[in-house]
Every structure is written in structure tokens, then in C-alpha cells.
Amino acid sequence: xxxxxxxxxxxxxxxxxxxxxxxxxxxxxxxEKSVLELLQNGGFAIQKIYCSTSFYETRLSKATFKNYQDSxxxxxxxxxxxxxxxxxxxxxxxxxxxxxxxxxxxxxxxxQLVLTLDAIRDPGNLGTILRIAxxxxxxxxxxxxxxxxxxNPKTIAASMGSFLRVKxxxxxxxxYFKAQKGKMLVVATDMEGENLHSYAWQPTTLPILLLIGNxxxxxxxxxxxxxxxxxxxxxxxxxxxxxxxxxxALFCDSWRxxxxxx
Length: 262
Known about the structure:
Elements lengths: L1 E2 L2 H9 L3 H7 L1 E5 L1 H10 L4 E7 H8 L11 E4 L1 H7 L8 E6 L15 E5 L5 H13 L4 E5 L8 H6 L8 E5 L1 H7 L5 E11 L12 E5 L8 H4 L4 E4 L11 H15 L4
Parallel strand pairs: 1-4, 3-4, 6-7, 6-10, 7-8, 9-10, 9-11
Antiparallel strand pairs: 2-5, 3-5
């Protein structure tokens, strides 16, 4: 167990920048719940855990976390706050190695819905979408290259631990759709599409790629052209649009109910 140094504070703060995360291949997980879930998950390699003395004594000193003792640095609440991306975190954060990038492919042995994101820019939205995917038992999501970074601190925090279970694959969606033609079904969320409430999801062994567009511009016309089905959430009031995360939840719920919770 070590003490927190000024250099450590500077380094962790630098990881708030995407280019530094990519160079160092490290990201930060903040907050008591997320860090404890990270340690219990065991699926990520941890470089360092920084925590307050009180948090160490009450939580991390336990036998459950004996394998992490050499990775722990202890300091005061002010030091943790100086490292943190969030004003209210004064207890713990962890610096974690970004896993080796692998091309994630949907499981073709069972019905599969895959949230496919076109230029989602808000990290909070992405984190919420990860939680939704996790809630509905989805294994992974596919993101356009211009979708916000999976390892953005706000994304990790908003996912509330779901980043541990839901994989993300970044790619050119246009190239991906071309390569997967005939192997997957592309369904687009589109305000001009068929009413989701009356749509009957057909049983299929092909993964369904549910295409969700940018918060402001929607789905790009180039990608929309690949959609074999367009679906809309009926509007009863005057709101201009729905948040991408809310829309994703409604579509996931509709699809999952059609599968009889299988």
C-alpha cells in the first residue's frame, strides 16, 4: 500500500482526455459502487486503486480484496477530489487497463437484438444505453467511429457498472452493413416509420441491428438506406423528439416482450 503522490494526481486527471487514454491504454472508474463492482467482477486488469483512508479501512482492507493490496494507494478526501472528474467523489477511483480490442460478433445461436449507434455524441446517453442493453440482456452494442468514447468518464459513470458486462465494437457502420448484408437484419428508428405498437417482430435466427441515430440529426441518409424495416414510437403530445436512451429502452422492451422474455 502506498501514498498518493502529486504526480499520480496529475496523471489520473490527464486520463480525462481521450488522446491520453488512447496513448496510455488506461481509463478511470469512479465511485464506491462502480469500483467495488469492478473489483468483484475480476474481468479487467487494474493498474491502481486510489482511495481515502476511511474507505480503505472500511472496505478495501477486507480479505475479499487481498489480491489488490499491492495496487492500492491511500490518501485523503481532498486528494481523491483533485483526481476526480466528478465534484462529489471523495472516496475512491481506479485506473484500469483498456482491454485488447476484439471484433465483437453477435451470438447467432439465439435471437439477438444489437443496439447500433450512429454518431451518439453525449457520453451520458451512451452510458444510459449500456445500462439499457444490460437490463434487457443484450450482450453488446455496435458504434460508429464518431460515437463518443466508451471509456469517457461520464459514460463509465452513467453506465452504473454495465460497462463490465456489455461489450462495444467501434467500426464504419457503412462498411459493416455492406459486409454483413444477408447475415443480419437492419431495423432503423425513424419518425416516419411503421408504428412500433402495432409492429410484429418476426422470429429470426439473424441478429437484428437496431439503428439509433444522432441526438440532433438522427440517422444519416447513407445508413438509413440499409434499413430493411423502419419503426417509429407514436407521439401523442407536442415534444419534438425523444432522448436516444429512452427510445432505445422502448424498442428493447417491445422486442423482448415479443420473445416472451426468452
